[in-house]
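User: Um, any thoughts?
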Amino acid sequence: MVGTIPVQKHFLKQPVAVGLTMTTTTETAKTNIALPDDFVVDKDARYTGTVTSYSKWRGFGHIELDQKGIIPGDSIFIHWQNIQTEDRYPRLYKDLKVEFGMMIWMEQQGWKKVKSVKAKSVTLPGGAMVNVQDEMDAKKELARTPVPLFKQDSLTKRCHTAPREAFKGSAGSL
């Protein structure tokens, strides 16, 4: 087999259907099914669904539709730019109920352009803005006392890094 690339099986999570071929992905095992050329969406319609995954660091996730059979796979891609919010960093969290519209999205997959669906104008049910930053920040546990990262030697006035044991059990442990 000249010209083939060996596949490292430990990187493969789950096969995902893309058009008529099967590929693999290391994402959250969501399907990205290519749509037929004659597929259309109602640009003014609003749909409801539940967030199944969202990566705040990557800025994207997936929403499972409540109304089944509207799109293949019943799961839709969401990007942070399509979240209607006043938060500094738009984000969603798992099991959050949302309302959204749909739009056709053309993406490049290899040499081909593939037609898929993407969520737009994501809000809370009823059209309220998705402002979850204060709620998420309240859940964080804040450190009570700061732990010095360096200690100063009183004789030589040099700074030494504190040993890792000094951080164990403290409020700001690494």
About this structure: Residues 6-31 have pLDDT under 50 and may be disordered. The chain has two domains: 9-139, 144-174. The chain has one helix and nine strands.
